[in-house]
Amino acid sequence: MEQGSLPFTSNLARVTRTRSMETVVAVPLPPPNQAEMDELRMQSVERAAVTSSHFNQMTYEQLAQFHAQQEAMAKRMEDESSRQFAMAKAMEKNRLEQEESRAILLRQQEELVRQKNELKRAMAEQARVSEAHQEMLRQASDAMHQQNSKVEELNQKVRRDSERWGLFAEATNQRSPFPSGQAVPTSRMENLMGVQQVPLAPMDKGSTKRERREFMDEYLAYSRRVEVLNRGMGGTMFLMPLAACIDQKIVPRVCAHDFAKSFEEITENDWRDYFLSAREVQELDLDSVAKAMASLKMDTKIRDAESRVGRLLADFYDKLEQLDVAHLPEQEPKQSVKILTAAIRPSQLKATVERQLTREANKAYKSDVKLFCRWLVSLMDNFMLFESQLVAMDPKPEPNRPRQYGEKPRRQLPPKKADSGAPARAPAMTATSAPYARGCLKCGSEDHKVLKCPKCQPGEAQRLLDQRF
After folding, report:
1. Separation CA 48–CA 52 (nearest Å)
2. Is the pLDDT score of 181 beyond 60?
3. Is residue 107 in some structural domain?
4. Which residue among 208, 218, 256, 369 is the one 20 to 30 A from 189 at the CA level?
5. Domain-terminating residue out of 280, 306, 323
6. First to last CA, the chain
7. Which pLDDT score, from 0 to 100, does residue 435 have?
8. Which residues form a coiled coil (predicted)?
9. pLDDT category, 455, cuts 50, 70, 90?
């Protein structure tokens, strides 16, 4: 083996390399014969044919795979081109929209700038007007300060003379703001409304709580009249404040003892609280109230049930006001019902009411004055109808009573002797035993007759006349 030769090679060996890059070492054999040579040649040819067939098969598969890859790549490139074209189209559309939006925004900015300039001009004009108004208000304020200074000087001058009459002088100055030689301007409303149409404010001159309550009632009536006049005539009449409705004679006493401060320091709310404090009453003494109410009696001369109960209620509340217990019906309704029941006349009706109040169905009337009075009106109406029938059948002889207009002369009959065995029956004291009043048979008013009474129902006037005559 020579130096530098391939491994496993010699002069007798031959190295070959196949197409698959495999090294084949061939060792020469002894020279074969012709048959072996032919056989070897045939084997070589067969191996070459097999190798060539295998190589051709592999080459076809590789070509088919490569062709498929080329088609897939071409398809992907086509899709990518379509996508890029769509993206380019969308980008172009977006660019156009952006340019259009930019143009719109530019126009809007120009419009906003124009509006801003207009607002600046308007604000400048408003500022100028406001400055003018401020200047006018400043001048008016200065004038008011000067006027207040003058008024204060006049007040001080008046108060130096007399504290009591100084207030009166101050009120006089406030009522007469115009000089004597200057004509006082009058509005159309003052021309339309005469002096007699303007309601006068009440004047508080009392010192007790009852007098303060009476003043509050009068002031409420006065405020209602002013409100109705303002609403009906469309004008404006100012309500007199409470501070102006106090009698000047009692102002120093009230300011010194009730408020402990000067008249100028007392506000309208203080005067209101002062009058409202009259609603606070002392503890009830039911025994003294019952004794004072013993003289309360129902007026049986009234020929109408509702009017008779109404008069009883009016007398009841008048006595409550005199006793300073006007809150009795709200705090003690049962005691109020007892007092009203005791005042019912005649005695037959009183006994009937007391008997009916013991029933369970009429239990609610014993603790509610309003329900009791409505229920009493219905009982009174039925009782008076029955009472008039009894009087018509058995009238009481009254020789000294003058004969009424339209009444026929009655023949005097001798009285019947009572049986010795039966007790004498006391004559019934009815409401008709009193002489009839010369007035309305329905409400008792002397201003009109029963035929013109507004409270009479259709046919009721004739029925009352038939019962009367």
Report:
1. 6
2. no
3. no
4. 218
5. 280
6. 183
7. 43
8. 89-164
9. confident
